[in-house]
Design a protein that fits this description.
heterodimer; A: mainly alpha; B: two-stranded antiparallel sheet; 15 helices; 2 strands; globular
Amino acid sequence: MKHVEAKIGKRSMKKQIRNVMVTVVSVLVFLLFVYPLIYTVLNSLKTYDDFTSSPQYALPAKVFFGNFVKVFQSDFIRYFINSVVIAVLVVVFTVVLSATTAFAISKFRFRGKKIAEIYFLLGLMIPYQVILIPLYLTYAKFKLLDTYFSLILPQVAFGMPMAVQLFLAFFKDFEEELIEAAVIDGSSIGRAFISVVAPICRNIIITVATLRAIFSWNEYIFSYTFISSKKMMTVGLGLNAFVGEEGLVDWGPTFAAIVVTVIPTLLVYMFLGKYMQSGLSEGAVKS
Amino acid sequence: MDKLLRNKRTILCFLLPGVVIYTVSVIIPIIWSAYYSLVDWNGYGEITYVGINNFKRLMGDTEFWDSVVHTLIYAIGQIVLQIGGGLLLAVLLTNIVVLRKPLQVMYYLPVIISTVALCQMFKKMFGVVPAGLVNQILSNFNPKWGHIEWLTNVKSSLAMVTAVAGYKNMPVYMLIFYSAFLTVPNSLVEAAKIDGANSFQIFTKIKIPHIRPTIFANLLLVLNGSLRGFDIAKLLTAGGPINSSQLQAMYMYKQAFSSQKYGYGSTVAMFIVTESLILAILIRWISSSRKLGGR
């Protein structure tokens, strides 16, 4: 009896040590992944004097919003609008094109369906920098550089492989009877697609939309290559331009500008993060 | 119904827009790139066909080969950090009992913060003049440590780029491996426990083998992503100092857009495409032969 008790005691002791270890490690990991953001937010609220008089890990002496005023007095609003317009259009086109393409591949009867599927998979393997040179030269020829179009087209196209895959996986288990019923009721396939298929795809549409919106907002290399004028800049380029002008002497506005560019993605992530995470891990957990 | 699903016009209406956009901006540019790799062109003057001369030049281009070596080091770092780190984090996540869900959400933050913003943050944290957060903390221990040049030092620039890139993407693989671990049947784990296996043995002998296909698939993704590494190196160190953190995709970019050598830049691009394809075939082959050979 005593022997068993000792064993149980040893076990719970072991369990406790384990719990403490897990807690300590999870707090450390939390600091690793979240502290940079906390640090940025805290420093965005500091005055110039704060920076010179106290270390960066200190809290601001008092909350100061002047840095944000500076950000909004600059061209940041313009960059913001540009990024929103581009992200919205990228999301709409990616969702519509991927959904219709995947639907056709999965449900329509034609030859070469497997080839079509592989054709779209190729895009996942191709390093996107490779298309920069031909795309840049083509844009230059047709005077398309420095336009929304120049950014939207490649973002939609490179978003498609993954989106098509997600939709294909979804349509695999989609019951054809539902479309059949709608068609018998007298609507065309197009109508049935909008009124019957799209509502059922709601979750997968939100997943694709969230992923692409965040990718688009954070996109850098296409805008760096194709955009040259200040009024067409996206937030990514704008942030760097802003830091170049303001941030070298006074760090406060730089931190404020970083916070401003991060807020929209944080909001989207807060409300739709679970869709985004499921989209990222889906297809990846496959044998 | 069957007839409707065979209707050519309907099929085209659904299929064509997507296929056209994708073909025009992904597939055709690659074919074009292949052509450009055989010419000499500054973008506006005459296009001169030079055949494989660009490739010959590439073979002897030391700056290029340096960038390939940097990419290789960078790729190894990404595998260690993203796959290795991701696995460790996934294990941690499975062991957290209290507040697991909110922690999972928070751990994911670096992934959704834009590369530009993240690099600006790290540039400030690792700044030298004025001293950034890290040097300020270190100088409390030893005043000499307050002047470490993290990003502007030939010895550490590539390591910093590698670390930040790994850091940014690690949570993606944490999540993937975490969901994969959830697919391990509980009965297997219980059976092993009864047989007296400890948690480390359960991890190495049961869980890891069970998710091996997932690990391989993601290894491919990480390696493939490393070949195109660009943004973080560009934004954090601009490839410097003296090209010490220049990756191959940056060298391509520099040749094309800074030196206006669109032909030679495309040659580098073709090299990268070839690498990606060889890699894809290689890993496919390894993972399928593993599967056939059993554990």
